[in-house]
Amino acid sequence: MAFASRGAYAFFRTDSFAASAQLIDAMSGMALDGHEPDVDIRGDGVTVLLRAFKGEHYGLTQRDLELARSISTTARDMGLPADPTAVQSLLIIPGATDRRGIMPFWQAVLGYDRRPDSPDEDLVDAHGRGAPFWFEEMDELRPMAAQMRCPR
User: Fold this and answer.
1) Which residues in the chain belong to E strands, given as ranges?
2) What is the pLDDT of residues 54-63, one digit of tens each?
3) Confidence of residue 87 (pLDDT cuts 50, 70, 90)
4) Sequence-ordered strand ranges (E) for 52-101
5) Are 113 and 103 in contact (CB under 8 A)?
6) In whole angstroms, what is the distance from residue 72 CA to residue 30 CA?
7) Strand 136-137 vs strand 95-96: parallel, antiparallel, or unpaired?
8) For the whole model, what pTM was predicted?
């Protein structure tokens, strides 16, 4: 598994949707309450994400590590190779001189929630599908950003 902004990711390559579904079926008995993986199932493979954001807690735990190892072992035993080159993750970090002033706008536009452990800095998709927005407080805007500001 590779670590990205939202947690630990892995992609297991398959040759059919049925093979992908078999991996998901095998994984279904491994998950523990609060540590269920997010999965994306396709005909060419399964993407697995163990979330770093769990309710009001942030960070991967020992239980996550154990689950990752179990999933990887099961996939390997099924002849489904992990392909780290197929893992993609996106994190957006806008800079602002007044983070608190712009966050309500982006929260309304995106329909995101404030991240429980950093509500004054970060917005996350409640459904875990969209890229998180982590706002960087800046003393002054970078030259290019200052030129692109819209007049009020």
Assistant:
1) 2-4, 7-13, 38-42, 45-51, 53-54, 57-58, 95-96, 113-114, 122-124, 133-134, 136-137
2) 655 667 778 8
3) confident
4) 53-54, 57-58, 95-96
5) no
6) 12
7) parallel
8) 0.67
Selected residue with higher pLDDT from 149 and 35: 35
Q: Which residues contact 83 (CB under 8 A, 6 or more apart)?
A: 11, 12, 13, 45
Distances (CA, A) of 119 to 23, 27, 78, 105, 133: 36, 33, 42, 14, 11
- Alpha-carbon radius of gyration of the chain: 19
Partner residues linked to 91 by β-bridges: none
Give dist(CA 78, CA 106) in Å, integer: 43
Q: Is the Cβ–Cβ distance between 95 and 104 less than 8 Å?
A: no
Q: Is the pLDDT of residue 18 over 80?
A: yes
Q: How far apart are CA 82 and CA 6, in angstroms?
A: 19
Domains belonging to the chain, first-starting first, are: 2-86 (3.30.1360.20), 95-147 (no CATH)
